[in-house]
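Step 1: inspect the first sequence and its tokens.
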Amino acid sequence: MAQYQTDALVLGVKNWGEADKIVTLLSKEHGKIVATAFGCRRPKSPLAGALQMFNEVSVQLTKGERLDTVRQATLKQANKTMSADFSAMAYGAFVAELATNLAVERFPQGDMYDKLLEIFASFGTRNPRIGALAAAYQLLEYSGMQLSYERCIRSNDEIAGDAYFSIEAGGAVSRDMVQADDRDMLDYPEAMRVFIGQLLKLSWQDKPSFTVNGKIMMQAEELLLKYLYHIFGKPMKSLKFIQQIG
């Protein structure tokens, strides 16, 4: 069967059978890869050290009909912060799960790959909750499911002042464009629109140059999570981990 080599980020690891794992990888060239790693849970397995969450690895795989198989894995870069800080790990798991859901199998994902490298590297230097929120809004921009934040989805005019947000329609709605039968509209204050714009422009190499209002941040989180539930049809599994750590 055909073999191939690629660099990849480990986005998911699940135990399978007595000694094996199923791993979810992201590759620049091949997009999302779901593969079996036979014997990976045995202490002396050459795959055990490399195939850990958030690691960047060089892997050799064999193509399969349903799942590929990892033959070799060499660690390129480990994320020590994620393995030692439970808060960073929890929010990092949220980002990894989102990337897994957005990425496409067998479709190049170079932009998402490079962005995730920057995001994961930054989790040791910034608040992981804010980092995960910014990461999520930025990753949506690579998915084809991005939202309309600055323009009204009905009039295409720029939003001025406070407005509303339609999860179902995927964007902001000017106050004068709201219809009598509209339901499930979220408040979309100007301060929230500005904050989301700052998250989208956040540089992962530099320290943030803006302050965070707790109420506005929670509103931005609510909008994001409701939209993710809308497009995926289920809540994010990693939210339970975040709730456990408080």
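Step 2: inspect the second sequence and its tokens, then contrast the two.
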Amino acid sequence: MSTTPVQDDTQWFLHTWRDHILEPVETALNVLDEEHAELVAEQDAFEEFLQRLRAVDPVEQPSNPVGTKSQRPVSAPVKALRDAYTDTVLAVDHYESVYDESLVENVAVEFGPDYAALFHPASNVRFSPPLKRSLVAATKQAIDERDSLDRAVEIEQESIQNYRDHLGEIIDTLDSTVVPEWYRETFQGDITTLLQERQEQLHSSVHRFETHDFCAYMYEEQLWTYPVLTSLARLQESVDS
């Protein structure tokens, strides 16, 4: 009588078991890849907006005699700024799915409510030279913030990939969920080492961010906050050691 179906069932079980253990770290890597792509796109968009912003001439303090009108309407820079922001920041592929805000709402979040008033289509705010300089500085800050977060993402990506590889190696040493007696001490030692290393990382920082805060932000849509610890816990809970 053939034993092939039993072998197939065993292989299917081990494959499913492995996927269950590695799912948190695999998902984390996908989340980080998506975040990296979005941050790069937003950095590029703000860089382009910055170039267009610099090309918009500010409205100088009018020196016209009292009672005469300026030859340049206040609305001209407003339209140029709105067009520039629409064509760049609001044009990133993920804008609607991630932000889904109006132009003025997004400017308020990115730069502050004072700048949002400038971008309102009915704005009567004068785009003065000092206001232009401060908007340039705010745009540079938005770029720097994304660059800083992206560096943290890249550090986390490297770390998670490293743990994913180590976990995969440990799983590959097992041909069932029962850890052989001769291997149990080594198995538990490897798991303990990974747990301690990751705990130490969580009590440090990722670039400029506290790791706990970073994980809470990055994995907020998941059922877990700490992918490595979750995978390690799944491995420990699913084996007889």
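Step 3: confirm your contrast with the notes below.
The two ends are 33 Å apart (CA to CA). Confidence is low (pLDDT under 50) at residues 65-71.
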